[in-house]
What does this fold into?
Amino acid sequence: MKTLMSTAPDIAALATRIAAGDRRALARAITLVESARADHRAHALDLLDALGGQRQALRIGLSGTPGVGKSTFIEAFGLRLTEQGLRVAVLAVDPSSARSGGSILGDKTRMERLSRDPRAFIRPSPSQTQLGGVARRTREAVSLCEAAGFDVVLIETVGVGQSETIVAEMADLFVLLIAPAGGDELQGVKRGIMEIADLILVNKADGALATQAAATRADYAGALRLMRRRPQDPPDFPKALTVSAVTGQGLDAAWDEMRALADWRRTHGHWQARRAAQARHWFHEEVRAQLLARLTADPALRARLLESEAAVATGGTSPARAAAALVAAMAAENAGPDDVESG
It folds into this structure.
């Protein structure tokens, strides 16, 4: 049987199947957009253009400290949503092996019940050392899931870190999952993460940890009150709540708060403004990525790049001056005869 790697896909047929909600076609399309091959990249862009981006799902970014139970929470939360008749896609970015680039963890094995739900779709992707905890093409995978008719797209990131906030540039809501802990836990979470969180959910609020979870929620609620109010939020957001992925306690309340915030942003014009700002952000990111790819693909420019790296490393020139010279060299190479004469 021919595979994606051995034959060009029929873009029109693939787009039709995705629009009809075919999960197998969706999986194949995500493989296409994740591919680094130039021909696959061209096909992926054609597919995204064919789908048009008319449908919109609620995009929820989810991050949390290691051991907080993100996968357990996502499975319980996802099942709660599918029980309500919603279609849920989970894009779970796994840590990558430094040697092979492949996923170390397996989210389908960690979310066994949700993976069997016909209304759910789970796609683990290796982060491949991508900063921000999100695979480079996750944003396009989100668009494919929307085109396939999913109502909610959950984006699970690798973990909490300074660059993790990039998930906010592709999500409508950002949820931070926290484990019950002492006051040191509050100090350990980066302020930048706190500033972009729409909801802070203290997980494992059951059994012996219930009291501690309530205290942790109170600590975070107090910290949130000290932060400057964001214009895109109603007065009572962001919020801190307690949940239990094991018992289901608090899941409905968390979902109600997510919908209330999304509805408020739509009503007050912040939803589309946020989507537009995100589109601009990813345009600039794509320009940067393609310029860097051009530098490494062109033999002469790559040689110049390596020379500049060596000069910077030895202190022969400053990073800023080396970068300026390299950009000038790229511009000169791209200049046509008319440009050279006019210069």
Q: What stands out?
A: Residues 95-106, 129-133 have pLDDT under 50 and may be disordered.
